[in-house]
Amino acid sequence: MLLLLDVADCPIAATAHPWHRWLVRIHASRLDRQLAAGASPDASVALALRAQLLVRTRVRHDLARSARRILLAATRAPGARRLAVPVCRGPVRDCSEEFAELISRLLAVGPVPAQGVARASLLLTDATSPLYHPDRADDLRAVVRAAANALAA
Fold first, then answer.
1. DSSP assignment of 77-112, as one string?
2. Stated pTM of the model
3. Which of 44, 111, 137, 149 could bridge 88 with an S-S bond, Cβ 3.0-4.6 Å?
């Protein structure tokens, strides 16, 4: 059972059905964008389920591992083993301290806000992220810092 808020801010109970979980998988990116923008995880069954998934330790550790791989690939020699999807190496190297902070906060023990994990997930998985686009690479430090700060909130 999930506790949600309706329009009048009155608590209502709703049951998560298997098709809710399927919809969450299908719409994960859209839900992550909503959570990253500050949508309340209690606003809908889909947002609540996605938030519950994002804050799991395993998901956070997977994101931290991905961020660590990206950071290592960016600091290695150009001929070294490459990532499957190329990243903007220079900007990643330039904000290595912010990446280290993001990784540390993803690995922190205890609860973290779903908004921060959603921001980290979008940074690492969204094809439009400044991580992957040289024309948006100037935004990378701010996006990484915002994700790390949202994890500490």
1. -TTSPPPSS---HHHHHHTHHHHHHHHHHHT-SS--
2. 0.85
3. 137
Helix axes 114-125, 28-36, angle to 10 degrees: 120
pLDDT tens readout for residues 43-61:
888 898 999 999 999 999 9
For the record, the structure tokens of 114 come out as 């779903």
- Cβ contacts of residue 100 below 8 Å, gap of 6+? 71
Alpha helices in the chain (DSSP H): 18-26, 28-36, 45-54, 57-75, 89-94, 96-106, 114-125, 140-152
